[in-house]
Design goal:
heterodimer; A: 2 domains; two-stranded antiparallel sheet; about 75% helix; B: MetI-like fold; 2 domains
Chain lengths: ~280, ~280
């Protein structure tokens, strides 16, 4: 009897220590980023361009670049993702055909982001001759986030109860009307949650935009989607590896990391809150 | 008429995913093909020296593959016990209030961009490791493994937690009714029936770690020498692609070789992804 109790005590505490160690690691990591980068944060840091060889000034062009890249990629991927999900859930026939599409989506979701970058370089930058530009980068990112939007929209559409559809059919609505007027509005909050999550993902990716959109430094803000841009994730990398004044670049890199972190965590937090609220207020 | 149109529009967009996948496959194979035809697939894959800019160029990526595998295994050694352990704790032992807070928090952590982990590794962990172990260089396979490991913990933990909490309540209650205590129930009942879910999390973590670019690019050090010990700088596959692509000429042999590496990387992640799908499908039947 005694041995069992000791084993249980040890087991529980070992498991407890794994979560404590994990949390300590991760919280320490976040804290350090904040402590090291806090000193450079100011309104000017957010609203001014870099100057003196990136050793002073702010990151405004990088914030703008990330905004353009992210928004454009979501604008492209969102309608494609939702329509794909409608087909998969509502028209799910024939089965073999759906299986092929599902396998393709799951495979896309597992492709490393650097491979997306090379694809963008070979196809959008070189073959379509869009050059290194917001357009090339956003197209690359949109394919990267497409599986996320499809999967979350699919889940959202599946959750709409079957009665809703039957009631609408009973009133003489066609399948298209049922989907557009009943299913999509009911699933919309959950679909949007998925879209918000994909915004966070697109904003933080570096490897896909390295060769397709990002540049270390440009004085001007982009005038059209054919311009190359600065972007926050790439800015962090570039400051750490290409800078010639590490003692001045490192704090700026930490500061940029805080801004990017706040953006991505904020976006995800909003999505999580919406989802939790939805679960609580569910009317069906 | 409108109904038919609507159906075909949704069908076409769904087919786009297949088109994009084939687009990726065709583009990397087209661009990577010339390196295979010039050096031979096996020489490319198993050649041990990578000097793409020398005259004559040497393009063997075996060392890069080994480096990728080393840092990935290192990352899993860090992340597996911590990720799976904390998942069990959250799902079976922690009180529900703590779980309510920690579960979304871990999901939130899983969304942190990898370049931020890279920054942390490069500016903080590497100098620290260098001092502690008295090494000439802190940017090495060991540091990269630790950072990758920390990055993968939330992914493995979040997926495994789902697996543990979906184990049927009846099984747990039956086990307690037979007089088993918490730890016995966890290891003899819950863990075996959540095995496939945990394995899915592990494969996802593996795919994430081996395909990760920014962390290894900033922390792994980049030496092309063959891997000998864990405290040596290494150049994993993703490192080579990201660091060298900027120096290549579009259509040149070095450019093609980097696409060749992407092909190998794609095949590795494709297989691990396929395994994952098989496990998931088997579980749902």
């Amino acid at each position: 009897m005694k041995v069992r109790e000791i084993k249980e005590f040890l087991g529980i505490n070992i498991l407890r220590s794994t979560i404590i160690i994990s949390m300590v690691f991760l919280i320490l990591f976040l804290l350090l980023i904040f402590i090291k980068g806090f000193s450079v944060l100011s309104l000017d840091f957010l609203l001014k361009a870099p100057k003196n060889g990136m050793t002073e000034g702010g990151i405004f062009p990088a914030i703008v670049g990330t905004f353009y890249l992210t928004m454009l990629s979501v604008i492209i991927a969102f309608p494609l993702g939702v329509l794909s999900a409608i087909f998969l859930v509502e028209f799910g026939k024939p089965k073999w055909f759906i299986n092929i599409i599902r396998t393709a989506i799951n495979t896309l979701a597992g492709v490393p982001s650097i491979v997306y970058g090379l694809f963008g370089l070979a196809v959008f930058v070189t073959l379509f001759n869009f050059k290194v530009s917001i357009l090339s980068g956003a197209l690359t990112l949109s394919i990267l986030i497409l599986p996320i939007i499809i999967n979350s929209s699919e889940e959202a559409i599946k959750q709409v109860p079957y009665n809703f559809r039957e009631a609408a059919y009973g009133l003489g609505a066609s399948k298209r009307q049922v989907i557009i007027k009943i299913v999509i509005p009911a699933a919309l909050p959950n679909i949007l949650t998925g879209a918000i999550l994909s915004v966070g993902r697109a904003a933080g990716e570096t490897a896909p935009i390295m060769f397709t959109a990002a540049t270390f430094f440009t004085r001007r803000l982009p005038k059209s989607i054919m311009n190359e841009v600065m972007a926050m994730p790439y800015h962090i990398y570039a400051l750490m590896t290409e800078g010639s004044f590490p003692e001045k670049h490192v704090p700026i890199a930490y500061g940029t990391a805080i801004v990017l972190l706040m953006l991505v965590l904020g976006i995800n937090l909003i999505a999580i809150i919406i989802r939790t609220k939805m679960r609580r207020n569910k009317k069906w | 008429m409108k109904d038919k149109m609507f159906k075909y529009i949704t069908m076409l967009t769904a087919i786009l995913s297949v088109v994009f996948l084939f687009g990726i496959i065709i583009s990397i194979f087209t661009e990577g093909f010339s390196v295979f035809s010039k050096y031979g697939f096996f020489n490319f894959l198993f050649g041990t020296s990578w000097h793409p800019t020398h005259e004559p160029a040497e393009m063997g990526i075996f060392g890069l593959i080994v480096s990728s595998i080393v840092v990935t295994i290192g990352a899993l050694i860090v992340a597996l016990p911590l990720g799976v352990g904390s998942a069990i704790y959250l799902s079976e032992i922690a009180n529900p209030k703590l779980r309510e807070i920690l579960k979304p928090f871990i999901e939130l952590l899983a969304s942190i961009p990898s370049v931020i982990y890279g920054l942390f590794g490069m500016a903080f962990l590497a100098p620290f490791i260098r001092k502690v172990f008295n090494l000439p260089i802190g940017l090495n396979a060991f540091s990269a493994s630790i950072i990758l490991g920390i990055m993968v913990i939330p992914i493995i933990s979040s997926i495994s937690e789902d697996a543990f909490s979906s184990v049927s309540k009846h099984l747990k209650e039956a086990s307690y009714a037979l007089g088993a205590n918490k730890i016995e129930t966890i290891f003899r009942v819950i863990f075996p029936s959540a095995k496939s879910g945990v394995l899915t999390g592990v494969l996802l973590g593996f795919g994430r770690a081996i395909g990760e670019t920014m962390v290894v690019l900033m922390v792994a050090g980049g030496s092309t020498a063959m891997f000998k010990n864990i405290f040596q700088p290494v150049r994993p596959m993703t490192y080579a692609i990201a660091a060298e692509m900027g120096e290549t000429v579009v259509g040149g042999m070095h450019y093609s070789a980097l696409f060749g590496i992407a092909i190998i990387l794609f095949i590795i992640t494709f297989i691990s992804n396929l395994l994952m799908q098989m496990i998931i499908n088997k579980g749902s039947n």
